Amino acid sequence: MLIILNIQVSFLIFFTVLYTDEKNTRKENVKIISDLLKHSGWKKLTEIKDATYCNKKSTLNDLLKTSVTSASCDTQIRRATVILGCTYAYVLKIMFHALIQFQNDCKLHVNDQKNTKYAKNCTMKLINITNDTIRMSKIMKGALDALENYHHSPWQYNKKTHYILSTVISGLQQFADQSNQYPLKIKSSDDIKNALNIYEHFFILMNIEIEGEMKVCKINSPDSGTIWNLWENEYKYAGVVEEFYKFITGKLSNLILSTFNKKYHNLGFIYVPEEDKTILSSQQVINNESEEDDVLIDIPKEHQFFNKYIN
Length: 311
Hints:
The chain has eight helices and five strands, in the order αββαααααβααββ. The protein is mainly alpha-helical.
């Protein structure tokens, strides 16, 4: 009888400790998510009107107006993940559309006898900016994972339900791994044609994937085609003297920089280089956060690839 009583007491102590730990963890999570959503960058994620994922509709207004409590914490995390996922998808859609047009410009000059270096230089820039886009997508995944880690059932560990962009980001990383394993030669015209064909196929495939992912998102901003037309018209009519591929490289580099600042750093995400992962800031407000849409903060050394094309 004494043994049975001891076992019962042991179980009682165990579950009491377990419940206390879980309760404390919930409180910590509520504070962390609440503090994160107080960063002013969240108010500026206006590209997305709303998103419906797993039959649940999320809006930025719902995310910002709902207090984070023990009861609402998981819901708020999901809203933030879905809205941020759609926002990142919107950026990548612009990138993919522009990269398809970029490689078309390179391809037009492959047999240009008057300027034999154009196609090679254009292709090299295309490869470099693609690599930066892939690195940017890794940072996007880090932010989404960091959010979901505070949910009781994180999507990144769910075999049945994957969050927005998981397929696209996985495809980008696989392409990067293959490119590193089998680097392309860019010497002869045939080399350039081969590289451009590979990248064209890849961009088209990723564009199809991103369109599928974005079916759950309602966009509140100009689409990728409209943005491309604006860039193209600016080049034609603003008296730009540099080569077209350099002009577009600058536009894409600025987009990457802006995304890092406004849709990562200003949302309260912090990159930890020692662990190669993203964590959530415990600060309510980032002191050096820019309130000006057109002002960019300094980029940490671990993200210096963003500055590669900005002179």
